[in-house]
Inverse folding.
């Protein structure tokens, strides 16, 4: 069967499979029986290991099927089977990861949003604890400041109640279950019967727990996880003949479609990182869906997603413009699979869009489901169709906010021209640092790409975190990007304009004027005087404005007049 399938692959599909397998072969650890993590070589990765198993079955060379079977067993060895725990049915991200605490958290007895209220309450208790200890001692405690006390309290809470993302990843249920569905659909007849039976039993646990998660809303699902949840409940409902699962999947699919049709957009909007996952899963809906109704809904969603991508895409810069509701990187070929889909659709000459990155292990899945770009949109991915201002509304998901108060109406706007794009977000109240509310992409006359993005971070820490008390309102027109920043927090915050590219010079930055290769910004700012940090090795320049809560000023504003340099 495998040889026949490989023979049916196009040259583009085969290129993706062979490229990804070259990477994954190099990461395989025979002693551990798993794939080493793509970014942390001292750890192993169960999700990538499942992807590798699929790739091995597709390639089916000498020893490949046996290795795939061993990998699948090893991944299932690392599934949590703890019916009373919130992490039941998910998989350990890595065998090196510490086990989450157990036996202390009757999570099903709490109302939706408990995780939000627990976090808020722990913070309040920490403040009060610090105050009480200081009063008891009659003075500030030597060597223990207020933040240290609260940090100690939070660590104690985490030792008792399983902290999501720190001690377990609930999304591994949906990711691995989706990959298992493809493997079972394509290869059940060539796998040992005992292994197939074990996979089915593993999926009974995973899907049941995924439904519990969805119904409890204890850990909200972002768009890409919601799409995977709907797919696995639908697929395994039919495979395991569970009519309740089928009905749940149908309800959730209709609900997702209704939310999409309000503005024709996903809650995770304009995201290089997560659109690639969305397209992969919607491809699974299209190829492996078991009912025509389900496939029709998937087709509507997939088409709408491509329309949104085309709206904000620049084929000259080969990137989505900002703003980004959630993204790790500004570059579409960085932490994303969108370029892989574009290569499948556009073909020869676009191989560079599908280059190896940290998402490459997904490529066997993408090779199978393919790209289904509407024919009338193809030209927008091949040639610049004219300068334009675009605007799209969406309702975001704030994972760390109260239920029924975590879906704000946002507007993403962008000015897109041939060698430059400017993006601005308004309406967002997301606490996630992956939300980039103000962005610029440009290319110099000799074709060198650069970008600028606005990020924020607690002083001395990473931008990729959840922080409360900060909002951004940005607006864009041709040659203009304006941002209002509101800060209502007791933390010292760094508001940072991060610029990426070669040849950046701190000497070219003044409070009123920023000069970069190929771009000049006149700056009108109501903000503290900035300082500049150059990270030469990463080719990054940071223009940093520090918020000091003790100073009482709770806002900053920036207006950038943007001119190209030819």
């Amino acid at each position: 069967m495998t040889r026949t399938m490989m023979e049916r692959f196009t040259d583009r599909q085969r290129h993706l499979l062979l490229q990804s397998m070259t990477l994954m072969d190099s990461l395989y650890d025979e002693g551990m029986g798993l794939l080493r993590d793509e970014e942390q070589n001292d750890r192993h990765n169960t999700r990538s290991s499942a992807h590798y198993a699929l790739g091995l079955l597709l390639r089916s060379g000498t020893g490949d099927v046996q290795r795939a079977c061993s990998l699948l067993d090893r991944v299932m060895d690392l599934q949590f089977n703890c019916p009373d725990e919130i992490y039941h049915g998910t998989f350990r991200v890595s065998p090196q990861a510490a086990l989450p605490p157990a036996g202390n958290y009757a999570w099903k007895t709490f109302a939706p949003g408990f995780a939000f209220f627990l976090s808020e309450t722990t913070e309040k208790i920490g403040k009060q604890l610090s105050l009480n200890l200081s009063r008891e001692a009659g003075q500030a405690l030597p060597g223990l400041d207020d933040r240290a006390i609260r940090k100690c309290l939070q660590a104690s809470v985490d030792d008792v109640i399983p902290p999501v993302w720190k001690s377990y990843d609930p999304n591994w249920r949906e990711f691995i279950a989706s990959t298992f569905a493809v493997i079972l659909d394509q290869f059940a007849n060539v796998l040992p019967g005992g292994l197939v039976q074990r996979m089915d039993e593993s999926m009974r646990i995973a899907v049941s727990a995924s439904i519990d998660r969805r119904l409890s809303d204890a850990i909200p699902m972002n768009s890409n996880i919601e799409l995977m949840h709907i797919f696995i409940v639908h697929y395994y409902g039919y495979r395991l003949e569970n009519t309740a699962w089928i009905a749940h999947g149908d309800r959730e699919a209709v609900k997702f479609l209704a939310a999409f049709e309000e503005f024709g957009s996903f809650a995770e909007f304009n995201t290089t990182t997560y659109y690639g996952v969305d397209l992969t899963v919607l491809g699974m809906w299209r190829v492996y869906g078991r009912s025509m109704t389900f496939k029709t809904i998937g087709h509507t969603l997939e088409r709408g997603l491509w329309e949104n991508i085309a709206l904000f895409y620049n084929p000259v810069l080969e990137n989505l413009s900002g703003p980004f509701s959630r993204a790790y990187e500004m570059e579409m070929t960085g932490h994303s699979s969108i370029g892989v889909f574009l290569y499948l659709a556009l073909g020869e000459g676009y191989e560079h869009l599908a280059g190896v990155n940290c998402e490459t292990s997904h490529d066997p899945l993408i090779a199978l489901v393919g790209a289904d770009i509407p024919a009338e949109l193809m030209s927008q991915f091949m040639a610049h169709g004219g300068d334009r201002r675009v605007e799209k509304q969406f309702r975001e998901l704030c994972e760390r906010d109260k239920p029924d108060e975590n879906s704000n109406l946002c507007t993403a706007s962008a000015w897109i021209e041939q060698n430059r794009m400017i993006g601005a977000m308004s309406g967002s109240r997301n606490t996630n640092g992956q939300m980039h509310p103000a962005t610029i992409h440009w290319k110099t006359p000799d074709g060198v790409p650069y970008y600028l993005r606005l990020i924020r971070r607690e002083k001395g820490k990473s931008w990729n975190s959840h922080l409360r008390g900060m909002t951004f309102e940005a607006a864009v027109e041709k040659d203009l990007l304006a941002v209002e920043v509101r800060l209502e927090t007791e933390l010292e915050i760094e508001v940072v304009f991060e610029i990426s590219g070669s040849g950046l010079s701190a000497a070219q930055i003044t409070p009123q004027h920023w000069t970069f290769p190929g771009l000049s910004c006149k700056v009108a700012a109501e903000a503290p005087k900035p300082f500049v940090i150059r990270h030469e090795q990463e080719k990054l320049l940071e223009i940093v404005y520090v918020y000091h809560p003790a100073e009482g000023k709770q806002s900053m504003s920036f207006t950038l007049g943007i001119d190209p340099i030819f």
